[in-house]
Amino acid sequence: TEMVQRLDYLKETPSQTAGPYVHIGLAPGAAGFSIFERELGWDIAGPNAPGERIRVEGVVLDGTGAPVKDVLLEVWQADAAGIYPHPEDPRADQVAPGFRGWGRVITDFDSGVWAFDTIKPGPVPGRMGRVQAPHLSLWIVARGINIGLSTRMYFPEDEALHAADPVLSLIEQRHRVPTLVARKEGPGHYRFDIRLQGEGETVFLDI
Predict the structure, then answer these.
(1) Mean local confidence (pLDDT), 51-76
(2) Phi and psi (nearest 5°) for 25?
């Protein structure tokens, strides 16, 4: 009863964005702190996982089209067979050797470019037998963003699978679907720019 009475007069504190300290806590090497021998989240696939080795890079753009230069991105993905190294995946014990399926990168403080190396994921079984097209799940946080933004990156060569993808099919404004599809720059090289608002704004997911 006493706790309930206290809550009656406690006010909500102001919301705060991630601010510049996010790098100290989540990517200390970038902030100039040598804490780990290897920065956490840099090795997504491991050296022995089978599959096509790819590099993904891009920038995060604000409403004026300028690169945001203090962004932290996290990526989750399945291996080349569409298996996640997570206990909720019924095939988790079959995941590729050394495959982590999670990574964390930050943008270059001067150019705003982010990049990571991994393997291309395979199609993922979804609910009710619906297959999700190969994709990367991305989470974005930066100064000026109150709540981390979630989105996906799909691959242009898998266009035949996009129409049946259960997540892409939820997008009512069909002209915005291409904002979730990367551009292939060359063999194993993809470009995926994320636009926070304005013309060509990326589709973000409410999860």
Answers:
(1) 95
(2) -80, -35
Closest C-alpha among 123, 145, 144, 143 to residue 133: 123
Q: What is the per-residue pLDDT for 35?
A: 53
Statement: the pTM of the whole predicted model exceeds 0.70: yes
145 against 41, higher pLDDT: 145
Specify the pLDDT at position 126: 83
Residues sharing a CB contact under 8 Å with residue 22, sequence separation 6 or more, in sequence order: 70, 72, 141, 142, 143
Pairing between β-strand 53-61 and β-strand 102-106 as defined by DSSP bridges: unpaired
Q: Rounded distance, CA 30 to CA 42, Å?
A: 12
Q: Exposed, middle or buried by CB within 10 Å (0-12, 13-18, 19+), for 21?
A: exposed
Residues 6+ apart with CB under 8 A from 8: none
Is-contact 103 116, C-beta < 8 A?
yes
Q: Residue 29 above 60 pLDDT? A: no
Positive or negative: CA dihedral 45, 52, 154, 71 = positive
Whether 178 contacts 168, CB under 8 Å: no
For residues 21 and 138, the model is more confident at 138
Q: What pLDDT score was predicted for residue 146?
A: 74
